[in-house]
Amino acid sequence: MSNLLIKNVNVVDAFQNFHGDVYVENGRIKEIGQDLNKSNVEIIDGNNLTLMPSFIDTHAHFREPGFTQKEDIDSGSKAAVKGGYTGVCLMANTWPVCSNYEVLNAVRNRAKEVGLTDIHQCVSITENFKGSNIEHLNIFKDDKEVKAISDDGVGVMDSSIMMKAMEVARKNNWVVMSHAEDKTFSKIDMRMAEDLMTIRDLYLAKVTKAHLHMAHVSTVESINAIERAKEEGVKVTCEVTPHHLALDSSISNYRVNPPIREKEDVKTLIRAIRKGVVDCIGTDHAPHTEEDKKNGAPGMVGLETAFSICYTTLVKENNISLNKLSELMSRNSARILGMNKGLISVGKDGDMVLVDLNQRVTVDREKFVSRGKNTPFHGREYYGEVKMTIKGGNVVYKA
Ligand code: DOR
Questions:
Q1: Cβ proximity of 112 and 82 under 8 Å
Q2: How many Cβ atoms are within 10 Å of 350's Cβ, its own excluded?
Q3: Does 342 fall in a domain?
Q4: Which residue's CA is minimally distant from atom 5 of ligand 1?
Q5: CATH assignment at residue 381
Q6: Which residues of this UniProt protein bind Zn(2+) 1 (predicted)?
Q7: Test site for ligand 1: of 62, 89, 91, most ligand atoms within 8 A of the Cβ
Q8: CA–CA separation, 101 vs 223, rounded Å?
Q9: Using a 6 Å CB cutoff, which residues line ligand 1?
Q10: Which residue has the CA at smallest separation from atom 7 of ligand 1?
Q11: Atom of ligand 1 nearest to the CA of 298
Q12: Which of the residues are catalytic?
């Protein structure tokens, strides 16, 4: 781990805004101030740039093992750091599904080998996503590195199974990440599908006292239900995706699950961000091959475009502060995943991102380093470019 001094930079995190220098030693932030001088360290001039804590994604799919034609841990990690992310939570819908130590350790080892970003791999809630059995959770109970369980991509239909999983999760201090979709409604009404399951899971979390994290919240009814549950003291956090904030059905009908919603939903999500109901941004980075997209696979890539889309949509167009954006993209997601990141303060990991807020960027899917080129944002113009991503004091990406 190298020592690094970033000078003359606008520093912004969830709580502060100042111009100065930040020094990283042995992987952690050591000193913050003005006119810092160090010898024998790498120096970066941050003039005209903004230094933020690196971004942490609560929700991504790297497809390894099983679907590496769509993405793998190497290409996904490169996409992550290009987007300013040094922490990513991966969903378990790989093949085989992550329901055992063979898959979990394979992902962990590969992630460490690649070394660009810290990866948490979710364990599936039900064994092999079959929806019926949670016995496999017992083998992970003493593993301090397991943070979250999820059947994202499918969801858990059986309410008593979901309740039992929440009980196990509470005992082990795991987060239960809910993909809220009632499959009996998926072909009839995707709004009902999301809202029914959101309300069910909030109720189960109230009863079990588990930490529930609602993934990709997209409707008025769901975010309002989460707000009410928070007021009642239910231990629930939630994420929204960049695409559910930047698109509505009058702009795009790109296939993604949950679907792109209506203008009123988008307005309500943005209002919920202002009110503090939304905890974080999760990209739901979901790479697919062109052929799979043609055949109807839902989802889009998100890591490389998340910052500029969120900055433009929230900060430039909706007057939300950059501090708030940092809270959503770094501080809260780090807290949910139990990472020592997400703020620029002494003792935190030296994981930061240098951004040029005035730089205009046109999304070009051909320039993505992700294997997935599936995006509805191709050709759209935004503000804010990631110039450099730093992890533990090492530069892991440079534009
Ligand atoms: O659009 C989606 N794609 N939503 C999901 O929940 C799963 C994801 C995927 O794995 O492709």
A1: no
A2: 27
A3: no
A4: 153
A5: 2.30.40.10
A6: 59, 61, 152, 284
A7: 91
A8: 35
A9: 61, 93, 152-153, 179, 256-257, 284, 286, 298-299
A10: 153
A11: 1
A12: 284
**How many angstroms is it from 260 CA to the middle of ligand 1?**
13
**Prior bond of 65 cis (ω within 30°):** yes
User: What CA–CA distance (Å, rounded) separates 247 from 253?
Assistant: 9
Let me know whether 130 and 219 are in one domain: yes
Which residues are annotated as part of the binding site?
A: 59, 61-63, 93, 152, 179, 216, 257, 284, 288, 298-299
pLDDT in tens, the chain (399 residues): 579 999 999 999 999 999 999 999 999 999 999 999 999 999 999 999 999 999 999 999 999 999 999 999 999 999 999 999 999 999 999 999 999 999 999 999 999 999 999 999 999 999 999 999 999 999 999 999 999 999 999 999 999 999 999 999 999 999 999 999 999 999 999 999 999 999 999 999 999 999 999 999 999 999 999 999 999 999 999 999 999 999 999 999 999 999 999 999 999 999 999 999 999 999 999 999 999 999 999 999 999 999 999 999 999 999 999 999 999 999 999 999 999 999 999 999 999 999 999 999 999 999 999 999 999 999 999 999 999 999 999 999 999
Domain containing 327: what range? 55-337
CATH number for position 329: 3.20.20.140
Residue that is written with structure tokens 């707000």 in the block: 227
Find the 257 Cα to ligand 1 centroid distance in Å: 6
Q: Pick the residue whose CA is nearest to atom 4 on ligand 1.
A: 257
**Gap between the Cα atoms of 355 and 325, Å rounded:** 13
- Based on the fold, state whether residues 199 and 305 are members of the same structural domain: yes
Q: How many domains would you assign to the chain?
A: 2
Number of the ligand 1 atom closest to the C-alpha atom of 257: 1
Tokens 């919240």 found at:
217
Asked if residue 296 is part of any domain, the answer here is yes
Q: Which atom of ligand 1 is nearest to the CA of 154?
A: 6
HSE, CB side, 13 Å, CA atoms: give it for residue 124.
27
Same domain, 46 and 102: no
With residue 77 as reference, give the H or E element that holds it: helix 73-82
